[in-house]
Amino acid sequence: MNNRQTKILHQLVRNNTNETLTIDMIASSLNCSERTVRNDFKQIDLWLKKESFQAEIIRRPNIGVRFEGSDKEKRQILSLIDQSRPMQADRSDEERKLHIMTMLINEGKTVSLQDLMNEFFVSKQVIKQDLLEISSWLEPFGLAVESKQKVGIRLIGKERDKRTALLRFHTFFEEDNLPSFYNKWFSEAELSKVKHQIKRLEKELNKQFTSDSFLNLVFHLLITTQRIKRKQTISLSLENAEALKAKKEYEVTRNHLKELESFFLIKFPEDEILYFLLHVLSLKEKNTGTHSFNEAAEDIHGLIRTMIQKTSQLTNITHDTDPLLFDSLAAHMQTTFERIKHGLYHKNPLLLEIKQAYPYTFATLFQIMEELNETVGFVFPEDEIGYLVLHFEASKERLKKLNGKNKRAIVVCSMGIGMSQLLTTKIERKFHSLELLRCVAADEVEESIRHDQPDFIISTIPLEHTTLPVILVSPLFPKAEEEKLKEFISTADREKFSDFSALKKFLDQELIILGEELEGPDKIIESLCGLLEKNGYVNKDYVHDSIEREALSATAIGGEIAIPHGNPRNVLKQGVAVAIFKNPVHWKQQLVSVVFMLAIKDTKDEAVKKMFEEISYLGENQNLIEEWKKMKTADQFYTSI
Asked: Does 350 share its domain with 443?
């Protein structure tokens, strides 16, 4: 027998309850198809005969499978299995966690620590750590791992939340290839059948789903069939159920699901049909043109206007003057609004990158949407806020006429008006995104810096005693110097945050923790908020506010950095407390070594925006993080920045 067949026999022999195991349950626990399990039974039958056992595997159609044999034979079989299972100890951490999660979510089993230790040949501490990571991942889905003495470990939560978690299972393992992950659960025939049915549904409804939406719908439907077989069905209490049934999409969707019943040998309950319809209606479609103002409901328009207005006020960026922002948000929010309203979770695969690249915009929009939750009647998930960030960042680029490596520069040329104009024209033609503020003489440089605030200087002559980066070029600006300027701009980007001047402005040596051992985000937030409160930066409510904020959306932004913060109403004066850990701590699904506890009151402050940019850049500078982790004193750290 192979490893999988050994596991199947082990499950059946160890099943001391009167419960009959279904083929579906066994297939799910092993992440394989039912057809594979049926074929494995034949091999197990041959092995039992070969080993001269009288025991046998009893299969009853539509009922399940059980092992029938004497207690003596059970002990002998288990002994043989244990002798042949040293390979189990070599299973990877990922395989072990996947198996535990499958038992808890997909099978709904109650297991004991001892069972898991025996199954995987690992210590109690390893299993406890696995359960801690699994619990942390499941928390945002509204699910909890409950452990009770003499009862065991089980998963607590609603069926629709379990479905949502199952559909996002692959993200726990950072698996990008959705089909390859779920291919372990479903047969090729099942996958092919459902894909074909969804394509027909898409065509009949005259929709064009994005590739991600299409795959999500395929695997949502496959998971639904699996749960119905287990009698784990959705129960909805929709006030608008009759309105949904009146939609043209309802009858089409219902007919397509009914066509699948004979293939999967199930019946789709009415609530399951409505739940699937909600997913169909809320999925993203390919961009098929400009959406008109009237395509979205007025309540969505009102929300968008308020969101844009508040963001403009908090950031001091005139988003409310960008008409394209309203149009793009209206198109985006049509399906998003329905999806969130009905609790349909949509994982944003770019969320971590968005948090790391745009921490200031994300924090601002998170605060705004938290304030608007009561108005709209539901909570905006962080994944959806991540998508909003991209719309506002695109608006920022349009408003500032930015594209890529965009900079502001002054040109210094001492060879007369004609040559100066020629040089300026050549640079503008080659660097469309570079804004040349003016062309000045050498003695006008400092005045221009104060007045125009350029990022750097392009000069035909050497300059001394200037505070800005300078690139020296020929007045004729030949081809070679185009590449030189490109490299200079790129290098300037990398060196832009080398001194962390904005961060240092908010930091005090009394607000630095080095070398302490603190477990978990809550303890770290409590310690840092304690320093902030003691030194007059925040009031006593800030710590509770920050912990609640963290529970809604993890503030880890990648690069071993976290930026927890609370509501500005509890900030007395702006500041930042820092904790640096030699050994990274678990922060939800990430490892964190540097924690910036932010106390921000004025989000319009340019220094605050600059500080967020510096922190974002720090996430790309792992060498500096490693240097900080080695530091012994607060003074040493403070001096280094």
From this structure: no
Q: Tokens at residue 369, please? A: 């949407």
CATH assignment at residue 485: 3.40.50.2300
Amino acid letter at 42?
A: K
**407 in Cβ contact with 435 (< 8 Å):** yes
The answer to whether position 174 is within a domain reads no
Burial 520-549 (b: 16+ CB within 10 A, else e): ebeebbebbbbbbbebebbeeebbebbbeb
Statement to judge: residues 217 and 120 lie in one domain = no
- In angstroms, the CA 281 to CA 276 distance is 9
Residue 101 — very low, low, confident or very high, per pLDDT cuts 50/70/90? confident
| Residue 520 included in any domain | yes
Amino acid (one-letter) located at 317: I
**% residues pLDDT > 90 (the chain):** 25
Same-domain pairing of 130 and 98: yes
Return left, alpha or beta for 592; rule: phi > 0 is left, psi -120 to 50 is alpha, else beta: beta
Q: Which residue range is the domain that position 610 belongs to?
A: 501-640
167 occurs within a structural domain: no
Least confident span in 157-166, 244-253, 432-441, 622-631:
432-441
320 and 258 within one domain:
no
Is there a contact between 466 and 443 (Cβ–Cβ < 8 Å)?
no
Collect all residues with Cβ–Cβ distance below 8 Å to 530 and sequence separation of at least 6. 543
Tokens 């924090």 correspond to: 363
Q: What average pLDDT does the segment 164-180 reach?
A: 71
pLDDT, position 417 = 65
Helices 270-282 and 248-264 pack at an angle, to 10 degrees, of 120
pLDDT surpassing 80 at residue 193: yes
Q: Which of 223, 251, 282 is the last residue of a domain?
A: 282
pLDDT in tens, 517-555: 887 899 999 999 999 999 999 999 999 999 988 888 889
- Inter-residue contact 364 to 311 (CB < 8 Å): yes
Shared domain for 545 and 626, answered yes or no, is yes
Number of separate helices (H) and strands (E) present in the chain: 29, 13
Structural domain includes residue 175? no
Distances (CA, A) of 212 to 339, 386, 480: 15, 17, 44
Calpha distance 98→127 (Å, rounded): 12
Residues 468, 611: one domain?
no
87-101, 289-303, 313-327, 374-388, range with greatest mean pLDDT? 313-327
Q: How far apart (Å, rounded) are the C-alpha atoms in residues 436 and 424?
A: 8
Mean pLDDT of 450-468: 86
Instruction: Give the CATH number, domain containing residue 195.
Output: 1.10.1790
Residue 327 has pLDDT above 80, yes or no: yes
Decide if pLDDT at 86 tops 70.
Answer: no
Q: What's the CATH code of the domain at 330? A: 1.10.1790.10
The count of domains in the chain is 5
Lowest mean per-residue pLDDT among 117-131, 247-261, 487-501, 562-576: 487-501
Report long-range pairs for 248-254 (Cβ below 8 Å, ≥24 apart): 249/205, 249/277, 249/280, 249/281, 250/274, 250/277, 252/201, 252/204, 252/205, 253/201, 253/205, 253/277, 253/280
At which of 456, 480, 495 does a domain end?
495
Distance of CA 176 to the CA centre of its chain: 12
Provide the CATH number for the domain around residue 522.
3.40.930.10
Residue closest to 233 by CA, chosen among 190, 185, 274, 271: 271
Which pLDDT belongs to residue 593?
92
Question: How far, in whole angstroms, is CA 14 from its chain's centroid?
Answer: 39
Per DSSP, 30 falls in state T
